[in-house]
Amino acid sequence: MWDKIKSITDARCLEALDSYGEMWLLPAPQIPSLSPSGWLVGKYKEQTRLATDLRTSAKLRQILTDSQVRFGLRESDRPPADVVRKKAYGSTVVGENSSKDFTAQRIQALATPVRPGAPPVNRLSDQEDNVAQFWATQTPQSHHIVEFNHLRDIGKSTRRGSGELDRGQLPCVLLMAEFHQRYISSILKKTHGWSQAELLAGLVKVYSDIYTMRTDLLRPLWEVSRIVLHAAGVQK
Known about the structure:
Blueprint: H1 2-6, E1 12-13, E2 24-27, E3 38-43, H2 44-53, H3 58-66, E4 69-70, H4 124-127, H5 129-136, E5 141-144, H6 148-153, E6 171-175, H7 177-188, H8 196-213, H9 219-231
Parallel strand pairs: 3-4
Antiparallel strand pairs: 1-2, 2-3, 3-6, 5-6
Helix pairs in contact: 8-9
């Protein structure tokens, strides 16, 4: 499975991160208004360690900056640097953009909102400063490109196993916590509680929709998810 991931067009190994196993940079499609960038893909057990170390290592953060690693859809999505992690949103503090609706500016939308048609379409952290401060202190998260829970529930993955489809070895991408939890996880929430039959019938569409229908930037992750789903016997 990993040999196929390494062969994705223009994928390159970040050798400067070799102490965290092999980490691969998958170039994101170029969008005129955004800087060139790529998604950092690696094994879950290694990438979670890297994510934690990013909090205190300026050297690691510089490596990822120099490599143009992307952590979310916004250019401002960056790992926290030497800050204390907040445990809760705290009291509401009105943000500078609390009453602003960015819909009119989205002539060419970067991504489909989680709940389209329910304004405002900007992030909660745009509206409330305390929320923005909370997310700015959170450690980046290693997101299973195909959810471990899905693979577990179809009988293809275990939590502590050593196979390539088991939790610790599954391909993950490093994402900012807000983007991971408030966007990706919110979309996947609809699959919670699906039966094995529903998962087998619907997983290809679920991941195709997330990684190809909502924004061009996520398309490289669809290539990875196809490889994982094929290895699990779901995608032909």
